[in-house]
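User: Study the chain.
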Amino acid sequence: MGWYHSPEMPRFFGVCLFFNNSLQEGHVMGNNKRDRQAMRKVSPTAVCILGVLEAYEQGEFVALPELCIALQTEPTFVAFSCLSGDGLVQELDLNLGAFFKKRAIEITRRFFTELRANSCRDFPLVVFLDDCEPCRVWQWNVFQDDMTAWCRMMLEDARDWIPAEWSVRLWSEIESELSFSYEQALFEVRGDSHALLLYRLAEYMRRFPNKKLVGDVNEAIRRRVAQYALQGAVLEKVFPHAILLQTEAPWSVKDLLYDTMRQTPLPIVHLYPERR
């Protein structure tokens, strides 16, 4: 297999070489034949990128064949920043959520620096602030327009310190570009075929109660699953080659929730430690 080389060959070259050798020998991060076949078809540059991804991966890739396909095209990395707040007063904290904490920013910037060094190209990152979650999932008694305006204000106030190469957008703006509706998603997840997803999320939410929640927990579980389903479907249409940087835990529960209304699984990588 040929190799793409540049004068500024990255310090992760050893990772790429190790990853390529492992791929050739069959020692790859893949649990089945489809995974292994997908990885053997990737280009030399994509192999280098996969090497960086595996070096940063805290768990296991989700939808590895789709990840390989995305890396062969023009992928967009996407992430959700979970907003924080207090349900007692139904107000958001004055920050942009967990993705913008110092440690997460450091990991993300270092990751994209390594990607650029190993591929000699820039990869877009779009971070979504889910301004719909407080009203839909937490069931706050607040008008959606007011919540969106509040989030937009926080975003504008933070523009000076957000890394210039990152695109930060409100989820409501993305969602409005398509005809999908939250009501459709809510109807979809009420079927028996999604009972296991609901059960797993219910176990987690009852074990770790959310202080932002003011409504019925059972209703919140259905609403949360519907919101993930809608996000996955919208991403498939707006960003067909998206790769999700997972920011929510537990991965064993949250990773599965994006695919309910999708035609193909959403590729997911885990750069950040899995924490509650």
About this structure: DSSP finds twelve helices and seven strands in the chain.
